[in-house]
Specification:
Length: 436
Amino acid sequence: MFDSAVFAARRDAYMRAIGPGAVAVVRSLPERLRNGDAFHPFRQLSDLFYLTGFVEPDTTLILRPGAETDRVVMFVRPRDPDMEVWDGRRAGVEGAKEVYGADAAHPAAELSSKMWELIANCEEVHYSLGLDEDMDKQIGRAIAYLRKTEKKGKRPPRAVVDPRAALHELRLRKQPEELAALRKASEISIEAHLLAMKTGRPGVFEHELEALINYTFRRHGGTGPGYTTIVGAGENATILHYIENRCAVADGDLVLVDAGCEYQHYTADITRTWPASGRFTPPQRRVYEIVLATQVSAIEMVKPGVTIDEIHDHCVRNLTEGMIALGLLTGTAEERIADLAYKKFYMHGTSHWLGLDVHDAGAYTRGGKSRPLEPGMVITIEPGLYIAADAADVPAELRGIGIRIEDDVVVTDRGHEVLTAACPKRIEDIEAACRG
Ligand code: GLY
Ligand code: MN
Ligand code: MN
């Protein structure tokens, strides 16, 4: 984990951004049952991790930039030796203050009785409505109570403000320690992709490759995958979020692997597509070269001032021309873009923010338009072509081919840095990696 000074600096920056009239409330999401009495592993809400580094459930952070004392207040699970024997160590209220920098800390159970006082008389509460119904109700009750106490000098906030307004703007521009975590996540992910390419011969099951990939993530100290690992062989590669990973890889298949390691809570997001036999067939090669040329030229566009929409339009244009050249579509690129026919084979966006969440926080638009990229932002570039096995009116040899190529790109002062550049993607490099 980063030094506690990193989290303190983030809280200070956030408090400066929302100003002395605001209060921010950030709460962890509830633990979720998986089945019976077994829970999904707990993963801290990214906003809360960003501001505290605190990874325990049942945690609430209240930031009060205008307060004279107790600007940073935490509600946490108290120490409990009996429970800790079963469920693991807790920092407790002492740890929240001594290790995590809270000015005041209270047991989680006291949140509902103390909330109204902590938000009283502020102008705005910055809080993410709609994530957790129980917490929404607690905030609602605190506001309703304050409406009744106005005559006694405790009035409710005038507005509830979405965290996108300030917190997600901070998360959008990555600091050096965040880029270091993303670099490490990328390095580990690249090793996992290389191992999959080396191992993924006909007869191997998709889940075996998934296991090798996830093992590699954990072996190097990652939490595991930052999103469920996708291993799609043959026509499974045409299903964008195929996560069953249950089929055997067959001779002649392309294998699409979309997998990224989460390291220190930051995730990489890499896709590579490679031939199980170690050599692309001529039709596979033709489709692959179109996607690759599109992806490489899209990455070249990344620099401050360019927008994600411009990058996407470029990819749509290139891929649509490719679809026509392949015989998937007829007419001109302008016509097929205008009537959206290209969406049959390229139906997703080209980029998203990347960071603590795979689809990271941050507004994509400004005044209704795609916003210009700025140094420190991290995006994916992930064009693809997906030709369904039962697609009508397409050359038979192209049916069932799915290809996506995805890299992670930091916007720098003058251009960009590809965090995942060491993961092979040129045809000869892919074929060499498949030979091991
Ligand atoms: N792995 C999910 C995505 O590429 O957006
Ligand atoms: Mn992605
Ligand atoms: Mn991906």
